[in-house]
Write a structure and sequence with these properties.
Strand content: 15-25%
Distance between the termini: 77 Å
Largest sheet: 6 strands, antiparallel
Shape: globular
Helix content: 25-40%
Length: about 280
Amino acid sequence: MSRMSDAKKHANSTEMEDLRTPPLYKERAFQYPYKDHDGRHLNTNGKPRSELKNSASLPLGTQSRLQSAAFKSYQLGTPINTLVTIRSCLFSNIINRLSTEYPHYEVVKLIIEKLRKWLKRDNRRLPHASMWTREIVANEGEHLHIALHLPTPYHQAFIEFLERLLGEPQAKQRRPKSRRTRGEIAVSQHEAWHIAVEKPDGKPEFPGYWLASYIGKGEFSERSFRGKLVQNKKKLERGQHFGGRLKHCRYDVQQGIIEGNHARTGRFGISRSLTP
């Protein structure tokens, strides 16, 4: 009798197993650290991450995209009128406060997010209309350009915000005229950040056009076509030597190799309010 009951139980269990939905994963889940014993970063599938992405220039057509975003900002009544430049030597002040290691691209994203929150605070409620690019200058290292809409009455409050965020106060005196940047209105004590307003490099197209063109200068003025270098006609503002209308070559200097993260090159960005 017991043998018959055992056989019946076995038959029932076999039948139930056949009716069960097959598991999504045949292997059991397991916990693993984000780094293996060799210190390599791992993806969520446990495999080593790829190397950080980098770029030698802005993608083809980026300057035009920035100009289009600036035009949209102008149409919305929030023209891009202010340029902020931050040198990467100040990134460490933010990283130290976070007590962790951050690639520069991650620090840039953090700065942009803090800027957005500052603009949106209840006592201001300013629109977040901005765009940014990263560049490298020989002997000075990397720096970040942020072009944004900032009404003149908020200049002083914005300077105080940068002082708190970056940990470097504003200089007490203005720099000599020979050392000032175009349209400069404020600079930090050790000249690691500064703020300027737009000063057109040519015939004004619309407010914000030349700031967008300036931060988009990291796009190559020449491109490769069938093994030869030809003029990059997608870059509207470039020097006459490269087929453009500008008499100077400020917009044609290569802006170095920039390191992003594992997924993006992280060389430029446009706020959502200005994207198509």
